[in-house]
Design goal:
The protein is an alpha+beta fold. Helices cover 36% and strands 24% of the residues. Strands 1-2-3-4-6-5 form a six-stranded antiparallel beta sheet, with helices on one face. The protein is globular and about 40 Å long.
Length: 117
């Protein structure tokens, strides 16, 4: 997956936005103002920080060397994923799971507007 493909994936979700609060080199992807993905899209190798259920985060780290505790994030709830070391389908699933976790924590009125449970 290329940086452009990762950006496009993150922006395809309802109400997803890209912001640059940490400078022009770090893309922060949010839904309803809440962070669900963070990446320096020009980094080599390409990495992305994604929110994850704590139990699932531990399992994923054990199964995939490309998934580590979230760099500069709460390591219980965030993973850093080396994008090129995983199949695109796995990266897509991880990004979607991160988005869904953030949406699940939003107020009900916002969730209904996003057409998500």
């Amino acid at each position: 997956m290329t940086p452009d493909e990762l950006r496009a994936l993150c922006l395809e979700f309802d109400d997803a936005t890209e912001e640059f609060p940490f400078g022009p080199d770090t893309s922060v992807f949010k839904v309803a103002g809440k962070l669900f993905a963070l990446s320096a899209l020009d980094s080599e190798p390409l990495r992305v920080n994604l929110k994850c259920d704590p139990d699932e985060a531990v399992r994923l780290r054990e199964e995939h060397p490309a998934i580590t505790p979230g760099y500069h994030m709460n390591k219980r709830h965030w993973n850093t994923v080396v994008v090129g070391d995983l199949p695109a389908s796995v990266v897509r699933e991880l990004v979607e799971d991160s988005y869904d976790l953030v949406v699940a924590g939003l107020p009900k009125a916002v969730r209904l507007r996003l057409d998500r449970p």
